Amino acid sequence: MTPESFDPDKIFHEGEIAVQERDGARDAVKRFGNRMVRPFMPDQHREFFEMLPFIVIGMLDDGGRPWITLATGKPGFMRSPDEHTLTIGSTPLLAGELGCAPGTGDKIGLLGIELPTRRRNRMNGYITETSADGMTVHVDQSFGACPKYIQTRNVRWRGGAGTGPAPTVRSQSISGEARRIIERVDTFFISSRTAEVDDDPRSGVDASHRGGRPGFVRVIDDHVVAFPDFVGNRIFNTLGNIQSDGRVGMIFTDFETGDAVFLTGSAEIIWDEERVGKFAGAQRLIEARAQEVVVARSALPLTGDLIEAWPRLDETGIWDETEAGSR
Fold it and tell me: Structure pTM?
């Protein structure tokens, strides 16, 4: 299949289409969708992945719950031998602890993001081979994404940190330590899934980025996290999956310490105009209810000193107690 042969009604699943229609974006997406989403990686994307020191990975555990984590390595740890294949020469951080060790045939969502340049490309597919050193992924869908809301960071290795098992604390609620990390972030990553996961290239797992001012993510209580959905490319992969299935995974990282909070749960899209209107820049709000939370100390072998926030970030808001409580 080539991009020219794509039928726009067969690029996106019913959940994505429903959100596109509610947003009024469906006609526009029909016009550009077949130019944006491809069943292969263009050379530019293949070269991009090979330059990265980490990749964001959305995976499912044995119960079908999404988690999201990172695989890291010196640039070159990923290779693309052809336009349909990406090899990742590193195992995902805490995959065993999260219950989502890679398996042949598993659907997977990948996000390549270069923080110093704000470049990012996404790929969804399935695992064709695993080894003690990583995995090989076959492309179902490949597409680029814009630089909006990405804070530029100077990514550096933390020496030997992150190479051994990270000390973890697992719970079914959001602890005070987890809350401290979550509410300080200006960046997090989210995975989502379709209701059915099968051979249809539209089904599976997606991995995506969210950015904002510190405080744009709010822990409402010991189970619920809320965040805004700002204007983006309007194809609504993540929101479409929430519409379809609702289950999500999230990772909140402290780029100074390497600490991370991993969360899996269920999410809801908030369309209420009064509530959304209280949050500057928000098009919608998302509330995610945690089912399991893992706090990992020094999990990341990378640090990322902030260089520059997204230039128009001051047009977006943060939560306050009134907004967080108006449920």
Answer: 0.94
